[in-house]
TrEMBL record:
This is DUF3987 domain-containing protein. InterPro entries: DUF3987.
């Protein structure tokens, strides 16, 4: 390098250093790290299985805990309700877990839902046999009906009504053998609960199917959210349509677990309808830090793990329990009552009053009042699920279980508080943040448009999205355009930007 070239290089470095003397503005409010997930509070059935899944799959604790709680709720929700001061609280839990691709959400979901999927196979096999028997029963019923009509016609119709009443209605069709649904609409859930089992769940490791599907489209999201909220609250649904009249369903239960990537979760959290209808506030939120990059291969099969096998067996037994039905009904549930003993009630009341005391204008939970207002009820639901896991015949919730459930509910409330403000970010800011994080993670002090469009974050690999994102970085002082471009990666690049290192932006 010539002396002149050396001087020019030092001058350029000096200019770049001067350009970065003013610290850039933050793009978003710094999000504090999550608190450790209280895995120990899951109890004697879920905790050992959670520890085994963590050891082998090595997913974030909150993903494991949320998956197991949701699967347990699906298995237990039909059997009992919590009764407290004249109110009936279903055991249905809704969980929204957020993690990047590669955080092994699907692997955890597969283990948590093993029993439910096995039971669904059993129902499908039985449904095939029942359908054959139903066809034969209907043929016999129709023959008897036709004979009754023929006999009555010979007597000028006398006795036809009595004969048909004695014959009774046609044999009912077998219930649809569904335990879960992945992609759904309000109408689809209504149909499934009308024609199938009265206790089901929406479980998917691809929440984009839900939040990006027809049920959550702009014209239908309000109806879907309102429908689901009624199910969570009271286990009831009603529908009025000009074509098929009015119908109302009672005694239904609906659990839910949506595993989402951040880009999908951000859209959901920023949806005013989902927030305003209370759908999100009914969800136990979890957005843990990832474990990718820290995992070593474990040569171990969870199919042979005693704790995971025990959990699968217990959940399968709970699924197979006879449904407690209202008298004369084959789909309306009448779950038995679970009550709190005196010590458990005292613990729950302390939780209730403590959370409520922090909901005022200057309180800790002022920003997340919708979630805070549901937390005492969430604790009751979790306590009921944990109780039935350990004793399927239980009718009382003890203090220790109530305290564990309270810790779990409070963790999710604090998680909602930690994430407060995420919904307020514009897509441009989220894209800019993703671009900056990518540049820092890959150690790039300069970037150019073609590089980002080919190798950058997937959410900004379109030119318009990239231009908006880089514009936000320039305005905030995190990026500076290099006039005239620069030669990089073997070619002259026209559109080049310097990126402020992370340690200079503190």
């Amino acid at each position: 390098m010539s002396a002149i070239s050396s001087i020019e290089a030092r001058a350029l470095a000096t200019l770049e250093s001067v350009a970065y003397r003013s610290a850039p503005e933050p793009l978003r409010r710094p999000t504090p790290p999550p608190e450790p997930y209280p895995l120990a509070e899951l109890g004697d059935v879920l905790k050992p299985a959670a520890e085994s899944i963590r050891r082998v799959i090595q997913a974030p604790d909150a993903i494991i805990g949320g998956s197991l709680l949701a699967a347990a709720s699906l298995a237990a929700q039909a059997q009992a309700d919590v009764h407290i001061d004249g109110r009936t609280i279903p055991l249905s839990l809704w969980v929204l877990s957020v993690a990047e691709s590669g955080e092994r959400k699907s692997a955890v979901d597969s283990e948590a839902m093993r029993a439910a999927r096995e039971y669904e196979k059993e129902l499908a096999n039985a449904y095939a046999e029942d359908s054959e028997q139903h066809a034969a029963d209907v043929a016999e019923w129709e023959a008897r009906r036709d004979a009754a009509k023929t006999e009555a016609k010979k007597a000028n119709g006398d006795g036809m009504a009595d004969n048909l009443r004695k014959l009774g209605p046609a044999p009912p069709v077998p219930l649809l053998p569904r335990v879960t649904a992945a992609d759904f609409t309000a109408e689809g859930i209504f149909r499934l609960l009308s024609e199938g089992r009265p206790a089901i769940g929406a479980f998917t490791d691809e929440a984009a199917l839900v939040f990006g599907g027809h049920g959550m489209a702009k014209e239908s999201v309000m109806r879907t959210a309102a429908t689901l909220c009624k199910l969570w609250d009271r286990g009831e649904l009603d529908r009025v349509r000009s074509g098929d009249g009015a119908a109302k369903l009672y005694g239904r239960r609906f659990a839910l677990h949506l595993l989402a990537q951040p880009v999908i979760a951000e859209r959901a959290l920023s949806d005013d309808v989902l927030a305003g209808q209370g759908f999100l506030a009914r969800c136990l939120l979890a957005w843990p830090e990832g474990t990718a990059g820290t995992r070593t291969y474990q040569a171990e099969s969870l199919r042979d793990d005693p704790a995971v096998q025990r959990l699968a067996t217990i959940l399968l037994v709970r699924h197979r329990l006879a449904l407690p039905l209202a008298e004369g009904q084959r789909q309306e549930l009448a779950p038995r009552a679970l009550v709190l003993d005196a010590d458990a009630f005292a613990a729950w009341r302390t939780l209730h009053d403590t959370v409520e005391g922090h909901c005022g204008p200057s309180g800790r939970f002022a920003q997340v009042k919708p979630w805070a207002s549901k937390t005492p009820e969430q604790a009751l639901r979790i306590a009921g699920v944990l109780t039935l896991l350990e004793n399927p015949d239980a009718n009382r919730i003890g203090k220790a279980t109530m305290e564990r459930a309270g810790e779990l509910a409070l963790w999710h409330l604090n998680e909602a508080l930690r994430l407060a403000g995420t919904a307020e970010l514009s897509p441009e800011i989220r894209d800019a943040d993703a671009l900056l994080q990518w540049a820092h993670a890959t150690g790039r002090s300069t970037i150019y448009s073609r590089l980002v469009l080919n190798k950058g974050p997937s959410r900004i690999r379109e030119r318009d999205a990239f231009q908006r994102a880089i514009g936000e970085l320039v305005r905030a002082g995190w990026a500076e355009p290099i006039e005239g471009g620069r030669r990089l990666d073997g070619a002259h690049r026209r559109h080049v930007w310097r990126i402020v290192p992370a340690n200079e932006g503190r």
